[in-house]
């Protein structure tokens, strides 16, 4: 039995509402990613400050400077390992703030990911129900590319396919960030932290073209 035009229109409107809810959650996820990037950058900066090597007191140049300008303050600074106590305390505090902040960020991102999955699964079940009633529906879900014969009039299946693809990208993005946060320690090297920051910013699993297409479908 084929679905009437009214039924098709109503089902499409329902899918569009779900798609809008899905993209709202994507926007929340994007905001979290920005906050997480800031926290990771601050963690890197603070750890870099605390872990920087002290002044080499055996250097001929350094010895000359200390001898010529050996004020009490300079001598204390050198003896303290070239670290200012105030800056050290400030950066240590930043480390203890950023790391829990990143862990909380991952928990929030996981929660959003679960909500996205529910929306995708619900739409997939609804589409399956429609397919059983209308043999003319022929969806292609799981492809890497999504195309429309008429981009201005996407079909019901287009929304479902796009949601599934975006969810897959976001899941990989989340997994990468979870691994980054899990690997952070006070012994993380500057090189490691630089790589983590670059990967977080580049987001290699997110296809910008697909995301732009998705946003263009929001009325």
Task: Please provide a written account of the structure.
With 219 residues, the chain is mainly alpha-helical. It has seven helices and no strands. Helix 1 packs parallel to helix 5. The protein is elongated. The two termini are 31 Å apart. About 3% of the residues have low confidence. Pfam families: DUF7795. It comes from Penstemon smallii. This is DUF7795 domain-containing protein. InterPro entries: DUF7795.
Give the helix/strand layout.
Layout: H1 5-50, H2 60-68, H3 72-79, H4 85-133, H5 156-183, H6 190-202, H7 208-216
Helix pairs in contact: 1-4, 1-5, 1-6, 4-5
Characteristic key phrases:
about 0% strand; mainly alpha; about 75% helix; DUF7795; 7 helices; about 220 residues; DUF7795 domain-containing protein; single chain
Q: How large a portion of the residues is in β-strands, by DSSP E?
A: under 5%
> How would you characterize the largest beta sheet?
none
Instruction: Please compute the radius of gyration using only Cα atoms.
Output: 26 Å
Run of helices and strands: HHHHHHH
Unreliable stretches: 139-144
Distance between the termini: 31 Å
DSSP strand count: 0
- What's the rounded overall pLDDT mean? 81
Q: Judging from the principal axes of the Cα atoms, what is the shape? A: elongated
Which structural class best describes the helix and strand composition?
Answer: mainly alpha
Organism: Penstemon smallii
InterPro entries: DUF7795 (IPR056697)
Protein name: DUF7795 domain-containing protein
């Amino acid at each position: 039995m084929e679905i009437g035009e009214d039924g098709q229109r109503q089902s499409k409107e329902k899918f569009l509402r779900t798609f809008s809810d899905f993209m709202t959650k994507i926007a929340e996820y994007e905001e979290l990613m920005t906050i997480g990037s800031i926290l990771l950058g601050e963690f890197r900066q603070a750890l870099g400050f605390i872990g920087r090597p002290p002044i080499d007191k055996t250097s001929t140049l350094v010895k000359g400077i200390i001898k010529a300008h050996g004020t009490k303050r300079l001598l204390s600074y050198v003896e303290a390992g070239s670290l200012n106590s105030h800056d050290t305390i400030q950066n240590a505090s930043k480390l203890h703030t950023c790391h829990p902040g990143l862990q909380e960020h991952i928990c929030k991102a996981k929660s959003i990911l679960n909500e996205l999955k529910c929306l995708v699964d619900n739409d997939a079940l609804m589409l399956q129900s429609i397919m059983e009633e209308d043999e003319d529906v022929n969806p292609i879900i799981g492809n890497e590319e999504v195309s429309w014969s008429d981009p201005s009039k996407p079909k019901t299946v287009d929304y479902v396919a796009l949601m599934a693809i975006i969810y897959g990208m976001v899941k990989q993005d989340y997994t990468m960030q979870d691994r980054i946060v899990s690997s952070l320690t006070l012994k993380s090297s500057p090189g490691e932290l630089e790589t983590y920051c670059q990967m977080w910013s580049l987001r290699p699993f997110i296809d910008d073209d697909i995301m732009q297409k998705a946003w263009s479908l929001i009325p």
